[in-house]
Amino acid sequence: MFVFKLFSDLDKCKMTMPSLSSIIVKGKTYQYLQFSTKSFKEWNKIYNIFYKDGVKVIPGNKIIENLLTPSFAELIDIWEMAVEQVKEYI
Predict the structure, then answer these.
(1) Which of 51, 71, 78, 87 has the largest CB neighbor count within 10 A?
(2) CB–CB of 44/75 below 8 Å?
(3) Structural domain tally of the chain?
């Protein structure tokens, strides 16, 4: 729920409310959170910098430097916080 609230409050992407589900595999029950996101077209620009013809590439230093604006750095921080929160459930 932390991740959902964080991204909703910051209006970084539109998400559906997470729901807790479970699945039984080989007699063992696993629980998971499920949600959907709707991303902004701006993410495509970043994707296109790091992938050429479906192959991951490392862009030049100047391109990376231009990406490190305060808003992009904030987004990376938010993502890292979200990953840490998810790790608590694993």
Answers:
(1) 78
(2) no
(3) 1
Whether residue 32 is contained in a domain is answered as no
Residue 43: give the domain boundaries: 2-13+39-87
Residue 3 CB burial class (10 angstroms; 0-12, 13-18, ≥19): buried
Bigger pLDDT: 50 vs 67: 50
In a domain, 58, yes or no: yes
Single pTM value for the model: 0.36
Q: Are 3 and 79 in contact (CB under 8 A)?
A: no
Q: So what's the pLDDT on residue 7?
A: 61
Nearest alpha carbon to residue 37 among 21, 14, 20, 19: 14
Judge whether 27 lies within some domain.
Answer: no
